[in-house]
Design brief:
With 188 residues, the protein is of the alpha+beta class. The chain is built from 5 helices and 8 strands, in the order ββββαβαααββαβ. Helix content is 23%, strand content 31%. The protein has an 8-stranded antiparallel beta sheet. The chain starts with a strand and ends in a 12-residue tail after the last strand. The mean pLDDT is 87.
Length: 188
């Protein structure tokens, strides 16, 4: 279980917290990403999720993603985005094969992401099964030189049929700014 702890301490400095759809998250100035048990500081928040196999990716797509993706925690990747998403009941009421068809066959979610690898590294965390306020937490890391490419990726993904099922999305942008230079990033 990974926790994203929003408050006034943490290794990531918050640049902005933008509600895209639905209820916003409370403003925070810092974010810590940890695999330790975490509780929200007063007036702030913690989002939790676990990594798992991608639900809609085929074995071939997963292999392609793994072959092209660079690891998280790269020295040059000092920009990040945490994008928590909750989809509608209409999405979850669809049979899995129909969700897959919307996700990849019609929205082409995986293939645009592959185009931006390895410049943008990402990790998906699942939260729905734990009663969290979001279904997915997507963590992206990239160098400031690739910020425009990241914006293009996000714009492309938000213009798909799949995104019509999103009922809550928040976009948290961050800069690596640890209180101690020896701080390491988690998760790796």
């Amino acid at each position: 279980m990974t926790s994203f702890v929003g408050g006034n301490v943490g290794s990531w400095r918050v640049l902005r917290v933008d509600p895209v759809i639905g209820v916003p998250l409370a403003w925070i100035s810092r974010l810590e990403v940890t695999e330790e048990e975490a509780h929200p500081p007063p007036g702030n928040w913690v989002l939790r999720g676990v990594t798992a196999l991608d639900r809609y990716a085929t074995r071939a797509e997963r292999s392609l993603l793994e072959a092209r993706q660079d690891s998280l925690g790269r020295q040059s990747a000092t920009s990040a985005a945490l994008i928590p998403i909750r989809k509608s009941a209409a999405w979850w009421n669809l049979p899995p094969d129909e969700r897959r068809a919307i996700f990849e066959e019609r929205s082409h979610h995986i293939h645009p992401g592959i185009e931006y690898l390895p410049a943008v590294a990402r990790r998906l965390y699942h939260s729905r099964e734990f009663g969290e306020p979001f279904d997915f937490l997507t963590w992206f890391e990239y160098s400031p030189d690739h910020a425009a490419a990241f914006e293009q990726l996000v714009e492309r993904l938000r213009s798909t049929e799949e995104w019509r099922y999103v009922e809550r999305e928040v976009d948290v942008r961050l800069a690596w700014d640890p209180p101690s230079p020896a701080t390491t990033r988690v998760p790796r």
